[in-house]
Amino acid sequence: MKNCVLVFLALASLVFAQNYSSDSLIVQAILDSNGWNSFTVEEVSNVSGNRIVELKLRGETIYYSIPTYSVWTGWFMYRSITWLPAEIGNLTALEKLDLGGHQLTSLPSTMGNLANLKYLYLDPKHYWDNTKQAHINGAGDIYYGDSLRHKTVSFWSDSLLNTYAANGRINDFSKYRIGSRLPALPATFANLANLIELDISNNPLDSIPSYIGNRTGMIRFWAAGIGLSQFPPQVLNLINLELLNLANNYITSVPSGISALTMLKSLNLSNNEITSLPESMGSLTALSDLLDVSVNELASLPQAIGNFTLLKRLNIDHNMITALPATIGNCASLTRFDAEVNSIASLPSTIGGLVMLDTLFLEWNDLASLPPGIGGLVKIMNLQLMHNNLASLPAELCNLAALAELYIDNNQLTALPDSFGRLSGLTILEATNNKLTDIPASCARLGNMSRVYLSDNLLTSLSSRIGSRTFDLQLNNNLLTSLPPDINANRISVRNNKLTSLPGSIMRSILNSLDVSFNELTALPDSISLAVNLSGIHCAANNITSLPAPFLNLVKVVTMDFHHNNLTVLPDSIGYKMTGLRFVDVRGNSLSTIPASLGKLSNTYLTIFADSNQISWLPDSLIAWRPSTRFYLNFNHLTLAGLPSNLLSITSGFEIQYNRICGATGAINTLLNGKSPNYAATQDCSNTSVADASCVKVLVNSLSQNTPNPFNPSTSINFSLTSPSHVTLQVYDIKGGLVTSLVNTQQQAGSHSVTWDARGLGSGVYYYRLVAGDFKAMKKCIVIK
């Protein structure tokens, strides 16, 4: 095909004088030979004076994913230029050529004939700028975004030239990317004397051609990621440069001669190995757009940085800087300052001089305090101070009326300033993992916060309005015994506290997700039915004994998590009313069966965890479930007689390890082995009878509930034996993994007590199992940290 194109172009050049017609033949040949079959010459070019003056041949990618067995598998698809004919050199009127995202290993030397070329882009990675995300189903329909929401639409970005789905343009893309780059530039590029913008980034060139130093009219130059080991001296001659990008190289130092580049507005030296910056950089007073020296080995900044009074963005993150010069306060035009992941121990008092700053990133430093001058950041909107050593915040911080987002996670804060409520514009507060014991009363005025994260503190109470009109409220791992009635949030998470009840007033129509797991609740309020939009409810590891009747009105609930409570029964009609259920977790309760109505759910995907109950029989209706349903019934009391009579018709998956299903033969045994491999080896088939418990002081084989429970860090486990036996007492996690063995020895008849120290283990539910001869028993316990 390429040979035919070459012959055709050669003949055309003999017949036609170079004009739009002959130019377009060359461009059409480029499109055809690179598989851009659905594009036209007009779409990829601009014309002036009957000649093509611009070619837009930048590659594009689509990240697409396809569901396979309910798991999304993703690929990239590419469309790039992989070959150029020598005849491209005949496009002598060309002023702009964009080959970003190419897959070329060489360029035709005839490109040196493009004497009018001003803008040349050769970065093979620039296809990332044109990456679109989509999902494609088996029929070829294209979906945008991250989910299949029944919206078969074309891509939403105007940067794509046409609607792919409608015209078959998707066929121009390939799953395979060669990964080719340019190891060298043609020597004839020395003829390109009119270059204004040149991008040679991400090609393994290792150096910059010497003639680059003669292009004194160049305004923008990109040479990122080309393997430079030193700052290229040729660049110092480009005195009209306004943008210089030498990021992602191996440069160790910056020459003092950089002071000659007085027209620079943007300088990117990020991701190199630079250890210091010269004071002569202070001559670059035109810097206004960007100075990026992030991801280097800088220990300090030059005092001359204070000369950058026009600079809007400064990035010094991921260095080893221990202090900021006082002159930083002179950079009064800064709007964004990135200084995260350094070793900055303090901020200069002059920091308040950054009166235009709206974003300040100081996370992952060594700050122990903030200067009062922080109150001078009158336009700050986003302040990030996570992972420092702050023990307190200055009152002056509360003067920041424009502050909308404050991140103070992972510090040593014991309190917030009394005047914290003056931050009337605050919409996001993240203060997790501190030592806060209370929230100031003034926080009652903060009624417009969309996100409040106060988990992992020592809170015992909350301001009455801290959660009003809040989208996401997280209060996990505190010491709360109650919640304020004014909470009005879309998502509420109060895991691992000491709640004994919930205020009925928090059950509002706005509520979408509620997590009150690992508390001390005994019941849910009847008003829960008012949370009509609730889709996820998590009440695990409480002491709830039953679900209130209004609970069944929550028809939008998808996830229902009540594992390790004291439920003895689920409502018979749960499957008829709560038709949206897809995930039900009732492990570790005292259920004797599963409601027949759950077998009527028609959702495509359904998972039910009912391990560690007292289930002894299952209704026949459960057999109607689909293959995509999973049912977990391990550690129950199921017997062969308690299985559904139509068991052989089952198509759903299930697990039945550690039950009492004994004596299965034939087709039933084959089915059970297929669904729950090696099930028989885990069944308890002993017929040991227990002595009459009504007799006074009659010794029986028994395993008692541990005390205390829940516990931290230790608890006592009691058991008794009717005769001497070899005893094992082992602790398992909720996945069945062995945690520790408490007893593994011969024991005499009588009562015994063992202490289990759970230090070093995380919060959660564990099981302890006793085996003494033919006697086997198991109990659950809860560790709370």
Automatic annotation (TrEMBL):
Record's signal peptide: 1-17
Q: Does the keyword Signal apply?
A: yes
- InterPro entries for this protein: FlgD/Vpr_Ig-like (IPR025965), Leu-rich_rpt (IPR001611), Leu-rich_rpt_typical-subtyp (IPR003591), LRR_dom_sf (IPR032675), LRR_domain-containing (IPR050216), LRR_R13L4/SHOC2-like (IPR055414), Secre_tail (IPR026444)
Tell me which residues make up the FlgD/Vpr Ig-like domain. Answer: 715-770
- A Pfam family found in this protein is FlgD_ig
Q: Which GO terms describe its cellular component?
A: cytoplasm
Q: What is this protein called?
A: Uncharacterized protein
Q: Which organism is it from?
A: Candidatus Raymondbacteria bacterium RIFOXYD12_FULL_49_13
